[in-house]
Structure formats: C-alpha cells, structure tokens
Design a protein that fits this description.
Elements lengths: L8 H31 L13 H12 L8 H26 L9 H32 L14 H12 L8 H30 L6 H31 L8 H16 L8 H29 L3
Helix pairs in contact: 1-2, 1-3, 1-9, 3-4, 4-5, 4-6, 6-7, 7-8, 7-9
Organism: Kluyveromyces marxianus (Yeast)
Membrane topology: Multi-pass membrane protein
Keywords: Membrane, Mitochondrion, Mitochondrion inner membrane, Repeat, Transmembrane, Transmembrane helix, Transport
Length: 304
C-alpha cells in the first residue's frame, strides 16, 4: 500500500467535526430506531413477534412525533467533533508508527491494527460516555408512566447520571464499546484504504470523485455491524439498565447476555441489525466523503 499523506491535527479536528455533524443529522433517526428495537423486551415463549424496523419507526412517529427521532442528538453533537478528531488523528498516529520507514508502505495487517487502535482510543475517551447519555434520552419514552421526563437534554442528563450513579456510570459497558469500535474501525479503515488505493491506481490520481468515496465508505461501513451485533445489543441493554451496577463489568456482560437469550432467544442478540447497518454504512459514506472534501479544501487554503 502506498504511503497515505498525513493530515495536520487541526485539519483532522475541523474536517472530522464537520463530517461527524453531517453524519449525525443524516443518520441519527436510524440510530433511535435501532436503540428502541434493542431495548424492546418480550418473553421467548409469548409468541408475540417483536416490532420490526418499519413498525418501530411508525410507532415512534405516531406516539411521539417527528422530533423524537432526534432524541439524544445533543449528546452525539457534543461528542462528535472530538470523536472524529480522535478517530482520524489517532489512526494517522498509529499508522505512522506501523509504516515501514524504509519503503514508506504499510501492510494490510498493520492498517487493521491502526484502525483497531483508533477504535479503542475513541471508545474510551469519547464514545462510551456519549452513548450512555444518548441511550438514556432515547429510551426514557418507553416509560411514559413516570410522568415528566427525567432527562431533558444531553448536558442535564449527563449531570443527573453522574450525580445519582457516579462518574463511573458514564463508563458502563466501556469494554463492549471498545470491542465494538475496535472491530468497526479496524475493518472500516482497512477496507476503505484498500479500495481507495485500488481506485487511485485505476484513475492514476490521488483525489477520487465524491461518488466513489461515498461508495467505498458505504461498503467499508457495512462490514463492522455484522461482526459485532451481539456486543452492541448487550452494550445497549447494559447502559440502560441500572440493576446490575453493583456487579463487576464482566459479570454484568455475562448476566445480561444470558438473560437476553433466556427470555427472548438467541436471535435477540441481533436486534436492530437492519437499522444499524442502515445507520452505520451510509454514515460512513457521509463521513468519509465530507472528511475528504473538507480536508482537501482546508489543505488547499495553505493556512494549515
């Protein structure tokens, strides 16, 4: 693989933040549907089929209105700029360490390792706290009997969670989040880099048309969700559930996983896979396209 030009950290921050905000605005409704599907509970022998993607979306719109699809967006928006800055900056950092200094090339395996490192880094620093807040906001509408919503917005929800449950509550499920982000970004950056390299060679130019960047982003983004869907479902339940807060991290994961399979069957581990793929794949298409476009524009200004 040819050596990829590293971006200035300031360029990563601005381009990544802009790309992330664009992704959130376009794809957050799909994430809300995915979360609702994952936290829906039923008895395994009840014979009641859990609502699917379309029905879940229709129920949200009918019962709560269109803006309900954007619940938790504030938490995402507050975290998206550092998340994308950390993702791309850490990926470039790890990639630089793993690049052969003599040839200026990096192997496919090392590209995957750099992506895994970027995924773990972003999960620990930004993603997990952001998702705990987001999931609480998205899930509270399932308990209308509680009256006035406990969480009003991302900042207030974060404050209440820390006050009532301690700062560690923001890191509930962090091991699962890190595992999910590691596999996501490892596969994501590897597939994207290889496809980009192929198309650059085919066109004999560095800058690809936007539609091709979107296409390879779509393909690379679709791979991760299929490989780690059970991790994501258990993580979502764990971050919403307060009853297991006194258990150790591993015991919580095992307990929730066993409970989910016992009550709803093995297929429950793949709840929300349709909206998740529909969320992540186009999200990556938007992110990579916007990132490449903004980065190129910023570099051409000569300011960075």
């Amino acid at each position: 693989m040819s050596k990829q030009k590293s971006s200035n950290p300031a360029v990563n921050l601005i381009a990544g933040g802009g790309a992330g905000l664009m992704e959130g605005l376009c794809c957050h409704p799909l994430d809300t549907i995915k979360v609702r599907m994952q936290i829906y509970k039923r008895s395994a022998d009840s014979g009641v089929k859990p609502p699917g993607f379309i029905k879940t979306g229709a129920q949200i719109y009918r019962n709560e209105g269109f803006l309900a699809f954007y619940k938790g967006l504030g938490a995402v928006a507050l975290g998206i700029t550092p998340k994308m800055a950390i993702r791309f900056s850490s990926y470039e950092f790890y990639r630089g360490l793993l690049t052969n200094k003599e040839t200026g090339k990096i192997s496919t395996g090392n590209t995957f390792v750099a992506g895994v490192g970027a995924g773990i880094t972003e999960a620990v620093i930004v993603v997990n706290p952001m998702e705990v807040v987001k999931i609480r906001l998205q899930a509270q509408a399932l308990n209308p009997a509680e009256g006035v919503p406990k969480y009003r917005n991302a900042i207030q929800a974060c404050y209440v969670i820390v006050k009532e449950e301690g700062f560690s509550a923001l890191y509930r499920g962090v091991s699962l989040t890190a595992a999910r982000q590691a596999t996501n970004q490892g596969a994501n950056f590897t597939v994207y880099s290889k496809l980009k390299e192929f198309l650059q060679g085919y066109h004999n130019q560095e800058m690809l048309p936007s539609w091709e960047t979107s296409l390879i982003g779509l393909i690379s983004g679709a791979i991760g969700p299929f490989s780690n869907a059970p991790l994501d479902t258990i993580k979502t339940r764990l971050q919403k559930d307060k009853s297991t807060k006194d258990m150790s991290g591993f015991k919580r994961i095992v307990f929730i996983g066993k409970q989910l399979i016992k009550e709803e069957g093995f297929r429950a581990l793949y709840k929300g896979i349709t909206p998740r793929v529909m969320r992540v794949a186009p999200g990556q298409a938007v992110t990579f396209t916007a990132y490449e476009f903004i980065r190129k524009k910023l570099e051409n200004t000569g300011v960075f």
